[in-house]
Amino acid sequence: MADKLHFDLVSPERLLLSENVDMVTVPGKEGDFGVLAGHSPMMTTLRPGVINVDEAGKPQRRIFVRGGFAEVTPSGLTVLAEYTIPVEELDQARLDLEIGYAEEDVADAKSDDARLMAQEKLDHLKQMRHAL
């Protein structure tokens, strides 16, 4: 049996996942990278994208993440993510509707602060839609 990678996925609220898997693909700031057991230690920031969790005999799990850090140590991989949602919970029609509302909010913003907040929300929604 091949060595397993210990993987922890942590959000600001709680530990979301802690298990031994075969491989995890992470959307790092410099590009996607795969982590197997025995990977060299490293740390990187995350860009918005999808984490793929692979384990033999099971369907691949896909989790959208936005912001955070990934750290590989001899004991495994830890991802500290600002925001996470399983890709299967994303709804294309709902996201398109919310993107339309967010675009209106950006156009109707009365101040720079309001425009920046609306634009951030719009960017976040578009990143999730792109994950589909």
UniProtKB/TrEMBL annotation:
It is found in: Cell membrane; Endomembrane system. It is a peripheral membrane protein. The keyword Ion transport applies. CDD domains: F1-ATPase_delta (cd12152). Keywords: ATP synthesis, Cell membrane, CF(1), Hydrogen ion transport, Ion transport, Membrane, Transport. One of its GO terms (molecular function) is ATP binding. Coiled coil: none annotated. Gene3D superfamilies: F0F1 ATP synthase delta/epsilon subunit, N-terminal (2.60.15.10). SUPFAM superfamilies: Epsilon subunit of F1F0-ATP synthase N-terminal domain. Pfam families: ATP-synt_DE_N (PF02823). Residues 5-82 form the ATP synthase F1 complex delta/epsilon subunit N-terminal domain. InterPro entries: ATP_synth_F1_dsu/esu (IPR001469), ATP_synth_F1_dsu/esu_N (IPR020546), ATPsynth_dsu/esu_N (IPR036771). It comes from the Bacteria. The keyword Membrane applies. One of its GO terms (cellular component) is plasma membrane. HAMAP family: ATP_synth_epsil_bac (MF_00530). NCBIfam families: ATP_synt_epsi, PRK00571.2-4, PRK13449.1. Belongs to the ATPase epsilon chain family. Produces ATP from ADP in the presence of a proton gradient across the membrane. F-type ATPases have 2 components, CF(1) - the catalytic core - and CF(0) - the membrane proton channel. CF(1) has five subunits: alpha(3), beta(3), gamma(1), delta(1), epsilon(1). CF(0) has three main subunits: a, b and c. This is ATP synthase epsilon chain. It comes from Parvibaculum sedimenti. The gene is atpC.
